[in-house]
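Fold in tokens:
===
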Amino acid sequence: QLQLVESGGGLVQPGGSLRLSCAASGFTLDYYDIDWFRQAPGKEREGVSCISSSDGSTHYTDSVKGRFTISRDNAKNTVYLQMNNLKPEDTAVYYCAAHAGLAYPYDYWGQGTPVTVSS
């Protein structure tokens, strides 16, 4: 079965850290750009970060710059999102998605992993 599976979400206090994983099953992530999205209750989905398959370049939405780091381990067929100094406004369901590049639609989506930042 071809799918992406996210994990690593949970409840964390403000200022805490979590590392999300996006693991591919049934296909290799090597040739895919991977994006992380999030959707908070009552809000639209927003792009958080992405990493290129070609040169490993990364991009972040302004609200997470300096706090989140995206990385990939092709040997483990997994992409990570390290989230530090978490804030209550980071609370959302986080999704990863894979596509062949900017001009291509997303081929695979994960089911999402919830992150709650609260004291």
About this structure: The first strand starts at residue 3 and ends at 7.
